[in-house]
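Structure (tokenized):
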């Protein structure tokens, strides 16, 4: 789950910023094959009313990076814009239009807290924004991810992972071991169907070794491993 903090300055800084107090019931949404809907709940734990906007965009990966297209036609959200009183909660329904049942459809659902200029909140106010992955499963999932590239430059190792399956692969972490030393990449990442993602690890010695990537249990994959050679220069 991606969490962003947005700052809105209103003039005079208080002794301590006002932190928002609300939460959502999910950190991702999964729509099984044959189903076309999901939902999550937003609850306001604050003492004041809070306004929210929920939007969607398609999620793709190109050249090892995430790309997106805003306001896609394949996702319907209700309600998109609403306000919650203190202690109130609201269920947000997400409907999807199936396009290709042979491959997973991937989206992002953005939940943003809206700033209210009419409300008297002097100083700095923090606004939260959540970004939820939305996965629409294919009829017959195929799990197939592998390491397809390793390059070393200035003691920085770049590892590229390719997903040849029709569902996403979720990688929990990666470990590089060589000559009695190791480096760890501990930032989980997704690799979408028929896409590649790359990550970098700083290494401190030259020589031969092995890189091992641990997929999350949901990916139904064995650990990915391959040998490597770090030139001594």
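Design, position by position:
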């Amino acid at each position: 789950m991606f969490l962003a903090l947005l700052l809105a300055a209103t003039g005079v800084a208080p002794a301590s910023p006002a932190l928002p107090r609300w939460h959502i019931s999910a950190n991702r949404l999964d729509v099984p094959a044959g189903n076309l809907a999901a939902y999550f709940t937003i609850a306001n734990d604050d003492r004041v009313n809070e306004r929210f906007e929920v939007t969607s965009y398609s999620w793709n990966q190109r050249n090892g990076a995430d790309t997106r297209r805003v306001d896609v036609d394949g996702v319907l959200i209700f309600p998109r814009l609403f306000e919650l009183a203190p202690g109130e909660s609201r269920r947000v329904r997400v409907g999807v239009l199936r396009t290709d049942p042979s491959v997973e459809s991937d989206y992002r659902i953005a939940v943003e807290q809206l700033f209210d200029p009419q409300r008297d909140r002097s100083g700095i106010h923090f606004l939260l924004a959540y970004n939820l992955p939305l996965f629409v499963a294919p009829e017959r999932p195929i799990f197939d991810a592998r390491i397809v590239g390793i390059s070393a430059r200035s003691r920085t190792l770049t590892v590229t992972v390719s997903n040849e399956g029709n569902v996403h692969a979720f990688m929990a972490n990666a470990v590089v071991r060589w000559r009695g030393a190791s480096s760890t990449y501990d930032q989980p990442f997704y690799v979408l169907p028929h896409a590649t993602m790359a990550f970098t690890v700083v290494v401190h010695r030259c020589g031969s070794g092995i890189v091992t990537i641990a997929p999350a249990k949901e990916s139904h994959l064995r650990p990915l491993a391959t040998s490597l050679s770090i030139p001594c220069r």
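Reviewer-requested clarification: DSSP finds no helices and 19 strands in the chain. The chain has two domains: 2-136, 145-230.
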